[in-house]
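User: Sequence in, structure out. Go.
Assistant: Echoing your sequence, followed by the structure tokens.
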Amino acid sequence: MVVIETKRLFIKHISTSDICQLHRIYNKTKNMQFISTGRSEWTINELNDKYAATNINYELGFGIFAIEIKETSEVIGEAGIFNSFNNLSKLELGYIIDSKHWQKGYGKETCLGLIDYAFTVLNVETLIARMYSKNINSIILSEKCGMVKIETGLTDNGQEYLTYEIKRGMKAQQTV
């Protein structure tokens, strides 16, 4: 089921047919280098279990979704809206896009779609994005999408992270 439609993308519920494409993405070190665990060795069963546990919230409108190029039906990554704070008015967004599709505007299109969806459909007040300070492209993307840095901190293993947010009524950049 398509949840968000942008100019070039469908952001949709993950189907069993999407898992193989997502498995390839999850098993590339380059794609996973800025994800919290950095883990890049996943089995199909582990991914199925991850999505089954996370996507119990589909009926509430959030979870992890597949990012699919409309024109080719290729799944190029995943995007999610998460209840990380146990507060439905403050949710978190995140995404993983296959490195072969970086620098094509898909990240911005995905994030702007998620922001619009969170505010207009989920009625969220605040949307958060967290990333490692080394993830320069995600920092730039967050700022391009109208998010502002609100926090800098250290993870348990000593890596610096940044927290960005956008609140209802703040001006997100024009959708692509």
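User: And one key feature?
Assistant: The chain is about 25% helix and 30% strand.
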